[in-house]
Specification:
Layout: E1 2-3, H1 6-22, H2 30-54, E2 61-66, H3 70-88, E3 94-99, H4 108-115, E4 122-124, E5 139-144, H5 156-168, E6 172-175, E7 196-200, H6 212-215, E8 218-222, H7 228-231, E9 238-241, H8 243-249, E10 264-268, H9 275-287, E11 292-298, E12 311-315, H10 320-328, E13 333-336, H11 347-355, E14 359-361, H12 364-371, E15 384-386, H13 390-400, H14 408-419, E16 422-425, E17 431-433, E18 441-443, H15 455-468, H16 473-489, H17 500-514
Parallel strand pairs: 2-3, 2-5, 3-4, 5-6, 6-7, 7-8, 9-18, 10-11, 10-13, 11-12, 13-14, 14-15, 15-16
Antiparallel strand pairs: 1-9, 16-17, 17-18
């Protein structure tokens, strides 16, 4: 999936409209694209309202904020679609629309959609300021004030509305991009703080830069009715990895399969201080679908076998290099480094790189590599995935003598090319770069629920388990990151309360959303 600038998206829409006029395949009118966009966003809004109600916040009012441009037109379609759903399903909430302008100030497709909006929508047109009780009665706000055409700082009425919504601290869904955010640069001094953004057609670059990751909340791509062929036309150098890409990788398992054909993963993790990291990583491996998982920890580690199905082994502290050859025997992939500590002999890395086994290096394993960069073979041939968080990535850059460009994507590509490893640079919208590619992918799932200890260990095990099943390293990293983020998104409400243990329990549901038959 392409990640595009606002100009690239406008070109794509113009191309679709031109093809519609010329009667060519793939054509789509502006009116129909706006209708599809609004209906897609309305569907997400209804699901969001149901989720909020399940969490104890029973939505009583859906309030749509509409601007003057095409984003305002989307907002009118959303209001109309939600109101028709409410009437058909006896939903117990009102739908209101506040517009910054009168109806006759709208133009083109936006005006046409506003004119056909259901009379059930309570309208407040040409409003200068929102009422003081605007946030009462368990409101869900839908932000359709400003779209992708905004550049520079927001002024006047819309700035006041954005500030008031942010002050209320109520659930917010943004259409395309949060109002006030530059769709290209991700800058903006007054931006709607959304909990969910439904971006239209293709994701915009600004959602991944500067203020974008902080303000967009969970990200969903809404269809505007264009074919996959049309969506592939923009010449963007940035790719997103979402549920469509994940579904291509999660295939039905063979009906006659058994544990021996789904791979044996070895997790060499844990220390006297970090027993939980070892346990979390091997559960992630089991949840990935690996047939067997062996957890090997130092004798001083408090780690125990977290699942009855896990094979458990201990080795004497400080003698890991001596015991590695026997541990590696019969395995298809390994995870090394989660909570292993700082006292590991660098010879262990020599043995791992010489094993020929697909490998995930995480946490202390990455820091060991950063301190001993000479152990990395110049002609590395085994599939290896590095999974650093930003601090570990800086250590790797220092160890290999690489200078940061300030661009996460460019830096991940540079690290991948230098090391010959697949790099999964963690963080909001994790980046995956492969040594044989010049274009990295940005993961579209995940949010603040993952900002807790141990979730990275789960990810390492998950990627390792996919490697053990024979998946290519770059695919294992991309799919693992997406499933990991999707599992975090499935933690319904109060993201601050999720733990890494909860995350592991959500992995089955995440896989099911991608492919229930796999």
């Amino acid at each position: 999936m392409k990640i595009v600038s606002s100009a690239e998206m406008r070109w794509l829409e113009a191309e679709a409209m031109q093809r519609e006029q010329d009667g060519e395949i793939g054509g789509r009118s502006g009116f129909d694209m706006m209708l599809a966009a609004g209906q897609a966003a309305a569907s997400e809004a209804i699901s969001f309202a149901e989720l909020l109600s399940d969490c104890g916040y029973a939505v009583k009012r859906v309030v749509v904020l509409a601007g003057k441009g095409n984003n305002g037109g989307d907002a009118w379609v959303v209001a109309d679609s939600i109101s028709r759903f409410a009437r058909s399903n006896n939903a117990k909430f009102l739908v209101e629309l506040y517009s910054v302008c009168q109806l006759d100030e709208l133009k083109g497709d936006a005006l046409r959609h506003a004119q056909k909006c259901s009379d059930d929508v309570i309208r407040h047109l040409g409003v200068a300021s929102l009422p003081e009780d605007f946030g009462d009665d368990n409101v869900l706000v839908i932000d359709g004030l400003l779209g992708t055409g905004v550049s520079g700082n927001v002024r006047g009425t819309i700035r006041d509305w954005i500030a008031q919504v942010n002050k209320l601290n109520v659930p917010v869904l943004a259409l395309d991009v949060p109002s006030g955010l530059d769709a290209d640069s991700g800058t903006g001094d007054c931006v709607i703080e959304a909990d969910l953004t439904v971006t239209m057609g293709l994701p915009k670059t600004g959602l991944f830069r500067n203020e974008g990751p902080r303000t967009c909340g969970r990200l969903v791509v809404g269809s505007i009715g264009l074919s996959h062929e049309m969506l592939a036309l923009p010449q963007s150098s940035l790719e997103g990895f979402g549920i469509d890409e994940a579904r291509k990788m999660v295939r039905r398992r063979p009906g006659d399969g058994h544990k021996g054909v789904f791979g044996h993963l070895l997790c060499v993790c844990g220390s006297s201080q970090y027993g939980g990291a070892a346990e979390l990583s091997c559960i992630g491996g089991m949840r990935s679908g690996a047939g067997l998982v062996t957890l090997a920890v130092p004798e001083s580690s408090p780690a125990r076998s977290p699942l009855s199905s896990v094979i458990f082994s201990r080795f004497p502290d400080a003698r890991i290099a001596e015991f590695l050859p026997s541990l590696l025997s019969g395995k298809q992939a390994l995870v090394f480094g989660c909570g292993i500590g700082s006292g590991v002999d660098p010879l262990a890395l020599d043995l791992l790189f010489g094993s020929g086994l697909p490998m995930v290096l995480d946490a202390d394993g990455l820091r060991l590599l950063a301190s001993n960069p000479e152990v990395l073979p110049m002609d590395l041939t085994l599939p290896c995935v590095l999974t650093p968080h930003p601090g570990e990535f800086r250590a790797l850059q220092s160890g290999f003598g690489l200078v940061s460009s300030g661009d996460r994507v460019a830096d991940a590509i540079a690290m991948s090319h230098w090391t010959g490893c697949v790099v999964l640079l963690k963080g909001r919208f994790s980046v995956v770069a492969a040594p044989d590619e010049d274009v990295a992918t940005v993961n579209l799932s995940g949010g603040s629920s993952l900002s807790t200890a141990g979730t990275g260990d789960v990810l390492a095990g998950l990627v390792g388990g996919l490697l053990a099943q024979g998946m290519p390293a770059k695919n294992a990293a991309r799919l693992g990151a997406f499933i990991h983020g999707l599992a975090g998104d499935l933690w319904a409400c109060a993201p601050r309360t999720m733990t890494a243990d909860d995350l592991n329990e959500l992995l089955p549901k995440a896989f099911s959303k991608v492919n229930p038959m796999a």
